[in-house]
Amino acid sequence: MKILVLQDYLRSGGTERQSCLLANAFAARGQTTTLLSFRPGGALDHLPSDDVVRISLQRRDWAWDWFAPGLIRCCRAASPEIILCMGRMANGYAGWLAKAVPSATVVSTVRTGKSLPWPYRWSLRRTRHIVANSEETGRLLTQRHRVPPIRLSVIHNALIFPPQSAPSNRESVRRLQGAEPETVVLLWVGMFRPEKNHRECLEIIRRLPASPPWQLWLAGEGQTRPEMERLVAAHGLASQVKFLGFTPDPSSLYDAADLAVLTSKSESLSNFLIEAHAHGLPSVAYSAAGVSECGGMAVPVGDQGALLAGLEKRMADPGFRRQEGLRLRTFAREAFSPERQTLAYLDLFQRLLAPPS
User: Fold this and answer.
1) In degrees rounded to 5, what are phi and psi of residue 261?
2) What is the DSSP string of 196-230?
3) CB within 8 A of 128, min separation 6: which ones?
4) Which of 184, 199, 220, 322 has CA atoms 20 to 30 A from the CA of 256?
5) Contact indicator for 23, 339 with CB cutoff of 8 Å
6) How far apart are alpha carbons 266 and 271 in whole angstroms?
7) Three-state DSSP class for 90?
8) Mean of per-residue pLDDT scores for the chain
9) Which of 5, 92, 10, 16 is nearest to 43 (CA)?
């Protein structure tokens, strides 16, 4: 097959990582694969393998996510059999591509818990098929957007950072942040965006008891990080809340932490929770759409008391953390296996390209 994966920009987000992972996996299985982005560069620009054809539409980065000069001409020249649209911007163009490049089968994806802009919704009615990354998102598409079930498949996110067999450097990573052996380290890996709701996480952890001692590690960058840093300083929590910045491979953080926490108000399926669980971390999270499918403890969005109680129980009981972590590790490694998800996409593509019986 000739597959074109469309993504506006390779920023350090979960969808962008999935785009790179899928493109690499398709190419590794012998498919002619092109990864086409609107903007050049990006934090993840190094991830596509040498087997993936890499094209950017903007000759230099104008920092306009929506600007896709020559998109239709480029897609026609690549002559793909499948165009897989990833992310909000790419999916906003999917309907036009389906009309302008009729030789290709255009597949939309919905990997967000946020509301869909009208070009996205318009495109969903015009592309050949839609992939949702969680059962909950699939239900929303059929109920809210009237997507016929025959045009819809659910393929969960793939595990991006599988646990490594190399020895863990847990203690050295913890010492670097000033965490003692008895310190319970809470971890959140993800971009700082309004819908991620880091501020509410801070409100909750301020109410944690002093014992056992704890730290919160926040790994990522984004627009709301400066506000969070100001709040942490204002509340006198600088020694307990650590801003670790963008981490290309957070595996060492998963190995060093004790518990994952997520207070996002908008998710479809959390890459962070999948990765944390695969490394054996238990979690407590708000049950934004799809979060409960990740396998950890999920409480209603906004129920700070329930989330605080879940954290306190796990922080106070190392044995319970270990038991729950082992269960989640087994579940995540099987349910979100990269090979399993890659084969699901390729099987879908083959079915869509098969001549009518």
Assistant:
1) -135, 145
2) G-HHHHHHHHTTS-SSS-EEEEEE--BTTHHHHHH
3) 98, 105, 106, 107, 151, 352
4) 199
5) no
6) 13
7) helix
8) 95
9) 10
